């Protein structure tokens, strides 16, 4: 079990508070026994502060000591592979054995953001070549390669391919890399993509067996009713966030939309969600892991407050009996 954090900015608290909440949650996740703590690169989004992903990873790694910290992921078409190799080579040098580098080919923002980054939509077409170049830059020194990442070369930072379609699954299988599927917001191709990845997997020296991480949302509270309320609040905010720019929606408007076929589409986007009290969560988590053929779940929680998010991960650790927390047995 791992944590996916977007450094959520709550208007009443601000960006600095979002970073402080991430530090507090990462330290607690380490105590509770979560495996890794990942941030996702997004840009031009008022409620997400994980845009300078490698900087935020540094901050979290400085304030923890054992949990793996990384990107889930870096949107590689936004960057030169050399720059990413240097950034993550630096991180691996500072925090040896604790850094992960998940790679995605989506832009992590809109067209205006792409123009501001001096990028084009077609830059994503070279994603396989960029991944191969990054592997070369992080691998052993190659006398035939004119460019070295300093730091970076020889650090062998673990790479993960992220995706929500067959493209990422096939690329990860061909390269012999772990695969992380974004089922927490794009669930449509989950089973087909993971089946394709496992069927076509080509073993590599670093990864002789395929390895799947599946994203899942979670709202875990002391009671079923409270968890359901948190879930409904998150769906409401999702509707408001997806509204066209310039359209102001109240919570009542969002609830009305959720009662329409459009609301059904929103619920489908987030259909892989654990909702309940600690007694009902283990069965839900086990069922989803089987459905996703997952070796690991990475959990995102858009709970309605910083405290509710913290409580979700705390109770989830207890419910699943993670190594750092005694609690309800996973077989319950």
From TrEMBL:
Enzyme superclass (EC): oxidoreductase
Occurrences of domain Luciferase-like (ranges): 6-288
Listed EC numbers: 1.-.-.-
Domain of life: Bacteria
Organism for this UniProt entry: Georgenia deserti
InterPro entries documented for this protein: Bact_Lucif_Oxidored, CmoO-like, Luciferase-like_dom, Luciferase-like_sf
Keywords: Oxidoreductase
Protein name: LLM class flavin-dependent oxidoreductase
A single GO molecular function term of this UniProt record: oxidoreductase activity
Similarity comment: To bacterial alkanal monooxygenase alpha and beta chains.
């Amino acid at each position: 079990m791992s944590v996916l954090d977007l450094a959520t900015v709550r208007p009443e608290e601000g960006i600095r508070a979002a970073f402080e909440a991430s530090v507090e949650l990462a330290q607690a996740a380490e105590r509770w026994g979560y495996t890794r703590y990942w941030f996702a690169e997004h840009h031009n989004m008022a409620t997400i502060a994980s845009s300078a992903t490698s900087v935020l990873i540094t901050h979290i790694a400085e304030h923890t000591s054992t949990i793996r910290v990384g990107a889930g992921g870096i949107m590689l078409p936004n960057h030169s592979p050399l720059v990413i190799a240097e950034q993550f080579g630096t991180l691996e040098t500072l925090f040896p054995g604790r850094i992960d580098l998940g790679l995605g080919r989506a832009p992590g923002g809109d067209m205006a953001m792409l123009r501001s980054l001096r990028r084009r939509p077609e830059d994503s077409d070279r994603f396989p070549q960029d991944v191969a170049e990054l592997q070369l830059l992080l691998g052993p020194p190659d006398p035939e390669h004119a460019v070295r990442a300093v730091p970076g070369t020889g650090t062998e930072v673990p790479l993960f391919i992220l995706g929500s379609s067959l493209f990422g699954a096939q690329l990860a299988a061909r390269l012999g890399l772990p695969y992380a599927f974004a089922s927490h917001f794009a669930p449509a191709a989950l089973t087909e993509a993971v089946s394709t990845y496992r069927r076509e997997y080509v073993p590599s020296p670093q990864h002789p067996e395929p390895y799947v991480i599946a994203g899942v949302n979670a709202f875990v509270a002391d009671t079923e009713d409270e968890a359901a309320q948190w879930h409904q609040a998150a769906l409401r905010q999702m509707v408001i966030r997806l509204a066209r720019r310039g359209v102001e929606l109240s919570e009542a408007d969002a609830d009305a939309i959720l009662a329409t076929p459009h609301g059904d589409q929103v619920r489908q986007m987030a259909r892989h969600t654990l909702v309940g009290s600690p007694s009902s969560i283990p069965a839900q988590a086990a069922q989803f892991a089987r459905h996703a053929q997952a070796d690991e779940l990475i959990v995102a929680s858009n709970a309605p407050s910083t405290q509710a998010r913290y409580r979700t991960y705390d109770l989830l650790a207890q419910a699943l009996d993670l190594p750092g927390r005694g609690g309800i047995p996973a077989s319950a």
